[in-house]
Amino acid sequence: MDKEKVSEFNEKAKNKIKTFLIEAKVPLILITILLLIDLILGIITRFMVGSMPDQNVIGRLSVDDKWAQVSVFYAQNQCIDENAIKKLEYDFKNKMVDEGGINEKKLNFSSCYSAQGSVGISYDKDKEPYKARAIGVGGEFFSFSPA
Fold first, then answer.
1. What is the DSSP annotation of 83-135?
2. CB atoms < 10 A from the CB of 144, how many?
3. Residues 40-70: pLDDT tens digits?
4. Full-model pTM
């Protein structure tokens, strides 16, 4: 009698597993498709970023592989000025010395930055100024920009 209960339990378990797999087939297929799409888009993104000349500056500057490139991007609504960039460099340098064990004299920073904005241009005081888009650059921008 125990063998009958065990075999009946096994049969019910098999049926539940089959039912689950049949019902879960569509979500599993969707998950697989989404993972493949994520993988493909990740590869495309890495390729696009890797082909940007300004993100590969280190290849032009570093002859002896003792250089590193760090890119920092801020949201448009953050008011970042030159002092904020200098503070970031200072904090970064201190972290590298304190926690990275790197000699401070060997750390050398070259920074560049750019920002989009608008300027008002007018030639007549009585007329409304014309708004033009502008891109401002600073630091050692042309050392990095391949232009």
1. HHHHHHHHHHHHHHHHTT---GGG-----EEEEEEEEEE-S-TTSPPEEEEEE
2. 23
3. 999 998 888 777 766 666 666 666 766 777 7
4. 0.46
